Amino acid sequence: MARPFSIRHQTGFTAIAVICFAALYAPIAILVIYAFNAGTSIADWEGFSLRWFVAAWNNSQVIEVSIRSLQIAAAAAVMATIVATMAALATTRTAPYPGLTLKYAFINQPLMVPEIVTAVALLIFFSRIKVATGYSGLGYLIAAHTAFCIPFAYLPIRARLESMDLTLERAAADLYATPWQTFRRITLPLLWPGILAGLMLTFVISLDDVVITNFVKSGGQDTLPTYMLGQLRRAITPEMNAISTVFLLISVGIVTLFFFISRKRN
Amino acid sequence: MASAAELAKTRARRDVRNRWLLSAPALLIILLAATGPLLIVLVYSFLAPGAYGDVKWQFSTDAWVSVLLERDIFDDTLSIADAHLSIFWRSVKLALGTTLLTLLFGFPTAYFIATRPERMREVWLFLITIPFWTNLLIRTFAVLEIIRNEGVVNKVLLATGVVEQPVQMLFTDFAIMVGMVYVYLPLMVLPLYASMEKLDFRLIEAGYDLYATRFKVLRRIIFPLVKPGVIAGSILVFIPSLGAYVTPSILGGGKNLMLGNLIELQFGQGRNWPLGAALSITLMAVVMVALLAYVRNAGDSEVRHG
Amino acid sequence: MNWKITATAMGLALLASTGIAGAEGVLNIYNWGNYTSPDMIKKFEAANNVKVTITDYDSNDTALAKIRQGGHGFDVVVPSQNYIPIWIEEGLLLETRPDQMENFKNVAEEWKNPDFDPGRHYTVPWAMGTVGVVVNTDVYKGDINTWGIVFDTPDELKGKVNVVPEMTDVIDAAVLYNGGTKCTGDKEILKKVRDTLVAAKPNWVAMEYGTIEKMGSGDFAASSDWNGSALRQRLKNPAIRYGYPKEGFVNWSDNVAVLKDAKNVENAKLFQNFMMDPESAGMNSGFHRYANGIAGSDKFMPDDMKGAPEVEVPAEYKSLGVASQTCPPEVQELYTRIWTELQK
């Protein structure tokens, strides 16, 4: 063999890895390609066209559920990130105190329980509250989304806090800065990349949720994913591909942005 | 007069109190919109079903009995509830199969990434995570389009003459498993990569110096070293696979139910909320056992390497 | 400072999301999926200055369970006739007296006083049809006018048959197939029904609602189905035919009702009246392809519906139709248990 012996090489591993990457992207690529199909089929290619994007744009229901999805995601991401930042400040850089482990477990709990179980629990619980209070607005969905988003904001923020240098804050305290001033002028700017990461992740996570939303939603509260779930089980047209493509672009855009921000920092 | 020690103590106490206040909103939201309602599910599992869904407020263990046993419709004899057990077994089987397949594909992929030049690793890793951050529904939909009778796979098979009739892949257990492998692969690659990144290649070099074959190096040196990553990845894949709902409901065709679908069915057409609640608790219990195994494993490995 | 701008933007987004709640002139409809003409809804929205939302359900039981638990936020629901007595009895519907509405005069004579809603105090006709089978005749050339397609699947169709999982439809079909009568409590027959279903299931490929698209794409070659859905399939692929089972088939209707806890009662009543207008009913039929029970609406239907064998039951099969009705609770209970057993 002409190739020099490499201790890192394992026979066939590269091939499998290539297959994996191809397999991960091929279905998505095909889905995107057929969004531009001129025909009504999602199987036969009949030429390039933007008609399904136009159709989706003109479908008032699609626009409506998309706006609702973005609103819920924005609200849930902001709230989850704020409370997760507070919780992260309260659970890092401290000696163990009673209840600390419990807090960790509690904050990360939504990651551990199967989504369907949480969904069922919320269906039962919220329907009682809806009847008792007579309020059946978007608040329930936002609350549910905030809850399962909290760990996704908490983890990057905590990681950032733990890797942060304490000397600047100490220096500020030595210079008689109030705790609030120290937080506002020192901690927060340093923490900002972690908070931004939390915001982006929670936004994407909320935007993607199907199961919990499907069980909690009231009349006229379909989000884009629950609307798509209904459509997927009935009639699939390239319009669904077009919607998916736009949706993919949003998620991938946010995650890519996140990647480059975190890469620059390192 | 407060001594210095007492002062420090009060300050520490105040610090703890502030920390509780600071974390209160997060804890409260999770309590109200995630953890608390689980207790209600537990309560519901001990009630009687209402005529058209919901519950009657009377104590009953029927739901728990019918998780495992069923009464024959016609002669009233009790027997093992093979309806539930077969769905339970299918869920476990598919979740295990998914775990195994993701490991089979994920291990070489993680190794590939870990052996790239340092600057490129991040990029490869990013490429693995992108699909994970895109909508689960869309990814499942993409799989559906590929494996359906008129999908790309069948078209290629027909065109190359491998088969004469399209192969029925959609709406089978196979379809569910393909979907889950596709969807959960990144969850396997990430922890595997994390443990491979720290791999000490001098050990491998030593192996080759002692005339080990590539396979022997893999089996005797690499695999034991990255075992914590293997276990972590397996559990991360197994848990969501077991409770999967979206993937089986789109790719399984409503005929091949998994636990998640069985639970949903009880809250809709099945009209048996207590049974649905009992099944939910059962699912959660299985997941908790898997998680405990995970935590113990993580603890063990830290001790060993620490 | 960069983060200030971001924070402000996020704050604004938060505000925006809370502001949309109390819009005026809303109507929330809860209906079967792929069943409502978008053009007809646009017409209603324009005429009454109301924003309509439509949420899908996939079975009578799902709808009933969701509404019964309360706090659902819906105004209008479209249950099948065999469920309507349950809805009324459970106190879920508002007595809107459609019989006193302006457009009631348009309701066809035979739908003015149905058994399930005597005197039409609650409901307005939406669509009516039959439950039968669709078969792709390119795949199977034999007799399609039998439930045997589903319950004793011919070899050509094995592994290609779908069953639409509406519990009552499937069990009624199996009862008729085994020589029973609708709502029978006869345990001998029901035992046969269970055995038929359990034995037939391995030949089915799926139990899905999405027949229109999947019959068209070749994922299914046959299915139990409703007639309007069958017509939509034939218009896409002429080889797909609708069979009227010789063992008997069920005539059903779905009807528009207003919920007792509706928040937009006036709009909901407007909608009921609107659905009895021949033009709106005709537009809706042009979409879902079922008859609608409104006299004079055929003028507004597409030509391909006139004389279509799916819409107008051919004379030789007419006598085989049985009216859909509510079964006694103890029979219903048996049905549910058979259904659960089928799900394994």
UniProtKB/TrEMBL annotation, chain A:
Pfam families: BPD_transp_1
One annotated Gene Ontology cellular component of this protein: plasma membrane
Source organism phylogeny: Bacteria, Pseudomonadati, Pseudomonadota, Alphaproteobacteria, Hyphomicrobiales
Subcellular location: Cell inner membrane; Cell membrane
Membrane topology designation: Multi-pass membrane protein
Native organism: Neomesorhizobium albiziae
Any single GO BP term: transmembrane transport
Domain (ABC transmembrane type-1) ranges: 66-258
Entry-linked InterPro entries: Bact_Polyamine_Transport, MetI-like, MetI-like_sf
Its biological purpose: Required for the activity of the bacterial periplasmic transport system of putrescine and spermidine.
Transmembrane segments annotated in the record for this chain: 12-36, 70-90, 111-129, 135-155, 190-207, 242-261
Keywords associated with the record: Cell inner membrane, Cell membrane, Membrane, Transmembrane, Transmembrane helix, Transport
Keyword Cell inner membrane: yes
Protein name (Swiss-Prot/TrEMBL): Spermidine/putrescine transport system permease protein PotC
Assigned protein family: Belongs to the binding-protein-dependent transport system permease family. CysTW subfamily.
Automatic annotation (TrEMBL), chain B:
Coiled coil spans: none
Compartment annotation: Cell membrane
PROSITE patterns: ABC_TM1
Taxonomic superkingdom: Bacteria
GO-annotated biological processes: transmembrane transport
Gene3D superfamilies to which the protein is assigned, alphabetical: MetI-like
Domain ABC transmembrane type-1: 88-294
Transmembrane parts of this sequence: 20-47, 94-114, 123-147, 167-193, 273-295
Membrane topology: Multi-pass membrane protein
PANTHER family with a match to the protein in the record: INNER MEMBRANE ABC TRANSPORTER PERMEASE PROTEIN YDCU-RELATED (PTHR42929:SF1), INNER MEMBRANE ABC TRANSPORTER PERMEASE PROTEIN YDCU-RELATED-RELATED (PTHR42929)
Family named by the database record: Belongs to the binding-protein-dependent transport system permease family. CysTW subfamily.
Protein name (database record): Spermidine/putrescine transport system permease protein
TrEMBL record, chain C:
GO molecular function: polyamine binding
InterPro entries attached to this UniProt entry: SBP, Sperm_putr-bd
Family: Belongs to the bacterial solute-binding protein PotD/PotF family.
Keywords, sorted A to Z: Periplasm, Signal, Transport
Annotated organism of origin: Neomesorhizobium albiziae
Recorded superkingdom: Bacteria
Pfam families reported in the protein's UniProt record: SBP_bac_8
Principal location class: periplasm
Gene3D superfamilies, per the entry: Periplasmic binding protein-like II (3.40.190.10)
Biological process according to GO: polyamine transport
Tagged with keyword Flavoprotein: no
Function field: Required for the activity of the bacterial periplasmic transport system of putrescine.
Keyword Cell membrane in annotation: no
Signal peptide span: 1-23
Location(s), subcellular: Periplasm
CC per GO annotation: periplasmic space
The protein's name: Putrescine-binding periplasmic protein
